[in-house]
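Action item from last meeting closed. Structure (402 res):
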């Protein structure tokens, strides 16, 4: 308190105590792959804000460079609604999985929320990208299914980094995956896989139609959905811009086998065109993390709270602090609920925040800790829409159920 010595009127600015929690971004992507010019800025995360920016950096002389899966993915990202990404140029898969090369270079970029390695479909590449996202816990992996498969049944088999080797007819060593395998499970849903590849115009040669890995286009769809609806909206039933066809036309019966296995299909429909027709993660089918929008929503909430509550550190660990934490977190989650991301007709039904003496007894406070428990009821997608139709004596009767 200042000392008042002269009689008069004094006006003081008094803090209200509220420290709003700001939501972090969810649409910045990180791409790892082989650039059109592999010699340019290798193993360095380069911020890219447009397709023309990518070409200026990684293909300064387009006439002397060829298109790569990385270029196709970055082009698809911006074409489908992406606005910012980081690109790491690697010469081969060994550099992709290297500790401080490829994926390792993305660990220092906090704003990345989506990671893709377009065109890399080996068991080792799948495992490396999933390991990276599971380690960071603030981003999800978008993985490409194999470019071709011997059968849909083979696609549902799980690929492992210890895939056995066999000799082909020419005596060369090759992976014995039987025509392309599904990535391993990610128990907490830090990855999603999409099949099949799409067919579109090569961004480096517009007169040529080529098969392209879908991960870059999907990253753009994630960003577009976030901007239009929010991270809680599943990035599904969305048009894939730039896709003129698919490399394999999945049937309804085939998707019935793939969907429970966490393989998201890109389907061709005669009237709707080419659309994303799946929203599953690589978590087990019975897991609470089986939907990609739920995983990404929790990622956003976790990081937003962590980044906006640094003020708590070294504060007196008493009831005033507990009330301040509860107030700020509850205000943030109320905002998230109003956006439609949490289920419930009232905030009390949608979430709870507990920070009190029960969670913070003397032994916890003596250890220098303050514990807050948060429970959320996320909105999940209407994956199966069922119309039950019957008749009564008065005519037709329709009951709608979602």
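Sequence:
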């Amino acid at each position: 308190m200042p000392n008042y010595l002269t009689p008069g009127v004094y006006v003081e600015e008094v803090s209200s105590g509220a420290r709003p929690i700001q939501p972090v971004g969810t649409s910045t992507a990180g791409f790892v792959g082989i650039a059109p010019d592999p010699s340019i800025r290798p193993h360095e995360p380069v911020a890219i804000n447009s397709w023309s920016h990518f070409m200026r950096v990684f293909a300064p002389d387009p006439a002397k460079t060829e298109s790569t899966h990385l270029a196709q993915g970055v082009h698809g990202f911006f074409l489908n609604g992406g606005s910012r990404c980081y690109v790491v140029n690697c010469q081969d898969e060994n550099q992709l999985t290297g500790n401080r090369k490829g994926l390792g270079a993305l660990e220092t970029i906090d704003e990345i929320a989506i990671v893709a390695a377009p065109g890399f479909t080996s068991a080792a590449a799948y495992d490396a990208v999933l390991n990276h996202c599971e380690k960071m816990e603030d981003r999800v992996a978008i993985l490409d299914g194999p470019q071709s498969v011997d059968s849909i049944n083979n696609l549902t088999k799980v690929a492992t980094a210890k895939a056995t080797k066999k000799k082909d007819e020419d005596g060369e060593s090759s992976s014995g995956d039987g025509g392309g395998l599904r990535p391993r499970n990610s128990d907490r849903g830090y990855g999603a896989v999409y099949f099949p590849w799409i067919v579109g115009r090569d961004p480096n040669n517009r007169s040529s139609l080529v098969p392209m890995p879908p991960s870059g286009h999907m990253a753009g769809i994630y960003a577009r959905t976030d901007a239009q609806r929010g991270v809680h909206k599943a990035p599904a039933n969305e048009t894939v811009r730039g896709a003129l066809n698919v490399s394999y036309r999945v049937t309804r019966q085939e998707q019935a086998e793939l969907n429970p296995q966490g393989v998201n299909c890109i389907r061709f429909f005669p009237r709707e065109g080419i659309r994303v027709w799946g929203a599953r993660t690589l978590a087990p089918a019975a897991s609470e993390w089986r939907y990609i929008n739920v995983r990404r929503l929790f990622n956003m909430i976790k990081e937003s709270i962590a980044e906006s509550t640094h003020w708590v550190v070294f504060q007196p660990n008493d009831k005033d602090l507990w009330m301040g934490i509860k107030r700020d977190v509850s205000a943030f989650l109320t905002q998230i609920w109003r956006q439609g991301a949490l289920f419930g007709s009232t905030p009390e039904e949608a979430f709870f925040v507990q920070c009190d003496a029960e969670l913070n007894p003397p032994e916890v406070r003596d250890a220098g800790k303050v514990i807050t428990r948060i429970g959320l009821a996320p909105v999940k997608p209407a994956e199966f829409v069922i119309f039950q139709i019957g008749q009564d004596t008065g005519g037709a009767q329709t009951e709608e159920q979602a």
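Note appended to the action item: The chain has eleven helices and 17 strands.
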